Amino acid sequence: MFSMLQRVLVHFSALARPPVRRVLLKQIYFTANEAAWLAAATGFALGAIVVVQLHDEYGQSRDAALRLLGSLSFVELSPILACLMMVARSSSAVAIELASMRISGEVNELKRMGLSIKSYLMLPRVLGITVAAMALTAVMALSSVLGGILFASGWDASYQIFALERMLRLDEVLVCILKAMSLGLAIGLVAVHAGFSVQAQASDVPKAASRAVLRGMLVLFLIDLAWAVIR
């Protein structure tokens, strides 16, 4: 996987080509835009549940509950949940697409046309999934904050104005962004590797999808564990 990452980064300049950018934008659209509502709804419910449990069940003040929610959501919950959502939705789709192209001979046709597989197929999908992971994580984290504030304060507008400042810390926001980027990059690399690892049999396509999902989930939790150890 590290060698694939190196090959992808070497061809980063290919984004200057319009066809590669179009593939990248399509990947971001299908990965992030179509799942944004789900990430927002999940985040809102998550924030409400955490605040209600901390405030009602464990006797935390609403300020303490919101501070804990901000830390939990941005540092731990939103990155891993958003990326798990992407593994379920997008990893298998990318693996199936690439595996089908390989088996049907489309990959060889692209090579004969002089197109770089790394630039046209690998780079936009890996980068698109990475950008989508960061976007969905941001949507989920902000939605969880909104849900927590509304359930903690109702419609007390004056309280809501100052709640964000009390909840969020710059270092936690930076960790959230970097963690989402690393998780998204791993998802993309695993999915692309699974898609290109098939042989010439059509029965390998569902196997590639299964490998992309299972290995993607494993890699996500390992990277999340590494982040926990580093912090």
From TrEMBL:
Entry-linked InterPro entries: Permease_MalE (IPR030802)
Coiled-coil stretches, from where to where? none
Q: Where are the transmembrane segments?
A: 35-54, 66-88, 126-152, 173-192, 212-230
Q: Read off the Pfam families from this record.
A: MlaE (PF02405)
- Keywords, sorted A to Z: Membrane, Transmembrane, Transmembrane helix
PANTHER family according to UniProt = ABC TRANSPORTER PERMEASE PROTEIN-RELATED (PTHR30188), PROTEIN TRIGALACTOSYLDIACYLGLYCEROL 1, CHLOROPLASTIC (PTHR30188:SF4)
Q: What is this protein called?
A: ABC transporter permease
The lineage, from the top, is: Bacteria, Pseudomonadati, Pseudomonadota, Betaproteobacteria, Neisseriales
